[in-house]
Amino acid sequence: MPLASMHLLLSLVVGLSLDPQVVPPTPAAPALPSAPPISIAYPDDPRLDMALGMMRKGSFEVAALTAQTVLKSRAEVERAYAVLGIARNKLKQYEAARAALEKANASKQEFPERRHVPHFLGWCCFHLGDMDAARAAFTEHLKRVPDEPDSTFGLALVALSEDQLDEAQALFEKALEGFSKPTPKPVDQARVWTRMADLALRRDDVVRAESLLQQAIQASALQHETWAKVARVKDRLGKTAEADAARANERRILEALGRTAVTAPTAAPALVPSTQQDAQAPKKGTP
User: Fold this and answer.
1) CA atoms of 192 and 234, how far apart (whole Å)
2) Using an 8 Å Cβ cutoff, are 192 and 179 in contact?
3) What is the distance in angstroms between the CA of the first residue and the CA of the last residue of the chain?
4) 129 CB neighbour count, 10 Å cutoff
5) CA–CA separation, 159 vs 71, rounded Å?
6) CA–CA separation, 85 vs 119, rounded Å?
């Protein structure tokens, strides 16, 4: 999951040459909620700001343990449930995250992360398969933060999961607009285009799915899920060589991320979007 959401936390190919010796760069961590003001009217603990700092550095387990420590000594600090739930969500521990976030969402204390708690709760419920709860949580977040694109994207996925295709289409388009203005967010745009391709396949429009996946790859070629879907679509279109190249890209990304065992270098060529092929073409007069 994995922020795209207002760049809070969620959210989640090697330069497109896909040289097996090159490791893709680690995407920048999304920004976390800002620190509370100096003057506060809710119970708080400075260790929670330390936990947020840990999450910014990717230390989610340590952040979760810090929030748990606060709760053990100061149960009245309900902000700790939010920090704990966000950390557990990032760790994909969705059951534990949901329990903490539901307590944070029921809180009457106006801590800084309060209005964004439903967003993270929505993703937990979605990953746990509770679509009614996911829809309710995303909708609640949009009431607090209107037009927030990642919660809109979440609602689109809920609609897609329930085969409400027209609703999903409208929500995907709204989320894409939110991720495009005023400043484009290519990784998030790629996420939306990839799932819009899923929608196109539900409608048996393979050519449309291929086009949408091409847009996703041009926006961000580091998403292994997108390459996997490119491979399946190319197979359906009988484009075997391109399908094999897409699978090679997916495998190389996963290997670089430490998600699969490194295998012998593949002979399959990288599948490079046309716009980036032009950018990578040697300039006249260069070696």
Assistant:
1) 19
2) yes
3) 43
4) 10
5) 36
6) 11
CA dihedral 281, 282, 284, 287 (to 10 degrees): -170
Contact assessment for residue 8 and residue 123, using Cβ atoms and an 8 Å cutoff: no
Helix axes 165-178, 186-202, angle to 10 degrees: 170
Q: How far is CA 80 from CA 110, 178, 187, 283, in A?
A: 12, 30, 30, 55
82 within 8 A of 114, measured Cβ to Cβ: yes
pLDDT in tens, the chain (287 residues): 443 443 443 332 323 333 333 334 333 334 555 444 444 589 999 999 999 999 999 999 999 999 999 999 999 999 999 999 999 999 999 999 999 999 999 999 999 999 999 999 999 999 999 999 999 999 999 999 999 999 999 999 999 999 999 999 999 999 999 999 999 999 999 999 999 999 999 999 999 999 999 999 999 999 999 999 999 999 999 999 999 999 999 999 999 988 864 444 444 444 444 333 333 333 333 33
Give the domains, in start order, of the chain with CATH numbers. 1-146 (1.25.40.10), 164-273 (1.25.40.10)
